[in-house]
Design goal:
Helices cover 6% and strands 61% of the residues. With 294 residues, the protein is mainly beta. The chain has a 24-stranded mixed β-sheet that branches. Strand 1 and strand 2 (21-26) form a beta hairpin.
Length: 294
Amino acid sequence: MKRFILTFAAMMGFVLTSGAQTVKSFDYRDFQGLDISHWFDVEVVQDNNYSIVITISDDLEKYLSVKNSKGTLYIGLDNPTKRVLRNENKIAKATITMPVLNKLTLSGASKFNTADTFDCGNERFVMKLSGASLVYGLNVIAKDALINVSGASTIRELKGDFVDADIKVSGASKIYANLMTDDLDIEISGASKAEVEGEFEKVDLECSGASKAILSGIVDEVAIEGSGVCTIVADKLTAKDAEIDLSGASKARIYVTGSLDVECSGASSCTYRTDKSISITSEISRGSSLRRID
């Protein structure tokens, strides 16, 4: 019954007040991007129609800011007081229906979840997370993708089909993704973690600052650069050709079927698996190692 009331209110543009929270609907249209801030919890549904329903604590309602500008829907709070920000029982939720999502920005511990697939066609998909934000369950089809995750933010269960994908993960952030892309560039730093599975033609991975990368799937060419006590686990990534450069006590594991070019320095180590006779070129400095494992 409650679900019916909220749906009816959204259709009619009503504002409902119940106890310590208010439900509001907004009639914005023609947006393809979302910019969410101030710990809003957002659920997005893919549909040909547009709808926006927000549930918010009464003490936050007067600070609520919702606007549509240049194809992006902005949801957040306008200059909330420190007392309001410290309220641990605050409620700020949004349910959004939209046809296409090609830009997503989250900040201030906001959360985003969806069970749907968004097809951007030949357009670029851009996603930026900061301030301990969370994305869960997003499936995107686009020409290319730019993804930036920082400030202890997390992306979980991301699925994507792209021609090119560029991913940057920093500041103790995490990303878990299943991707199909021709070219994948990943940069991980600042004690961050990236776990990526998929099928690729080429992967370029740069890992530094005590970060960790876990790669699995199939790739024709992979180039790995690790520094600053980082860890790369790629023994479940079937690579035809691999080029690895490790320094600063970093470690890497790889599975290779064609050729392996390795350079290790500064007490770093590389281990590799193979089921074939492969071509190996190596430059291993004192205190570092390269060895084959079964």
